[in-house]
Amino acid sequence: MRPTRRMLQVTGAGAAALLALSACSSSDGSSSAASGSSASGSGSPKLSGEVTVFAAASLKESFTTLGKEFEKAHPGTKVTFSFGGSDALAASITGGAPADVFASASPKTMKVVTDAGDASGTPATFVRNQLEIATLPGNPDKVASLKDLTGSDLKVVLCDKSVPCGAAAQKALDASRLKLTPVSYEEDVKSALNKVVLKEADAAVVYKTDVKAAGDKVEGVEFPESADAINDYPITLLRSSENTETAKAFMELVRSAEGQKVLNAAGFLNP
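Structure for Molybdate ABC transporter, periplasmic molybdate-binding protein, as requested:
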C-alpha cells in the first residue's frame, strides 16, 4: 500500500523532530564538554614530574613528611630534596645548580638568591624558628642558661656564623653580652646537634625543632635570650624551575593548614 500524503507529512515531521532533538543533544553535549573542559582548565591541572627542593637542614624531618604526602596526593610526581646550610644552598643556586624551590632559614640568605635574580616572584615567610640549647641526655652538666655555656670546662659547639642558626646564636650572645669560644663551628644545624648526639660535645646551640627531632638523644634547655634571635623562614619558586606548576603546588602545601600542622608538630612557630 502506498503511503498517503498524511502519512508522509507525519513521518517527515517525526524525522524533523528527531533531527532537532539530536542536534539539541549534540549541542548540549558540546556545551557540556566545553564546560567540563573549561572547568578542568580553570581548576588545578594534573601534576606530574619531579620537583627539586633546596631546603635548610632544620626542615629535613618536616619537609620529608610533606614530600611523601604530596607524592601520595599527586601520583606521578616526585619531590627530591637537598638539605644543608642555607648559605651553601644559596651559593649553589646562584652558581647555577638546577632547582625548583628554595626554603631558607633566614631572609639574609634568601636575599643572596633574590639579589642574583634567581628567584621567581617574592619570597614568603612560611614558619619561624627559635633557638634552644641541646645537652647530653639528663643534662649531666646542669646547664640552665646561655651563660652556663661560657664555662671553660664545657665543650660547646655552634653553627658557623655564616649559617642562620650560627648568626642567630651570635645575636643571642651579643644581646646578653656574653662571649663564648666553641670547640668547633659546624656547617649546619644538624652537624652541630650531631656532635652532642655522638658525645663529642657537651652542648650545642641549635633550633628547638632539631632538639625535638632528636628525641631522647639530647635534652633541651630553653633560654630567654632566644626570643631576641628568632629566624623567619622564607620560601620561593626559582627562576630555573622547569616544572613550575608542580613546584608551586608543593609550596602551596607547605603554606596550607595541613602543611602548617606538620611544621607546628615539628616545633616550628607560625609566621
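The two ends are 88 Å apart (CA to CA).
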